[in-house]
Write a structure and sequence with these properties.
With 61 residues, this protein is mainly α. 56% of the residues lie in helices and 7% in strands. The protein has one domain. α1 crosses α2 and α2 crosses α3. The longest helix is centred in the first third of the chain and has 12 residues. The radius of gyration is 12 Å and the shape is globular.
Amino acid sequence: MTRTAKPPRERAARALCRLHGHRPDTRFDGKAMWESYLDEVDTVIASAMGEETLRNMKDAE
């Protein structure tokens, strides 16, 4: 069984979560902890790569 790659936004959010000392899959407010970092990830992607790229990334998920 092959493991599918996680979307870039999720990978980035998981990385930020680990950077802050949290386990990404820990439940927080009913969701995985990494999901609480998506706003920060989206801000960085939009700033660095543009709003259109961010929209395309979200659409691809």
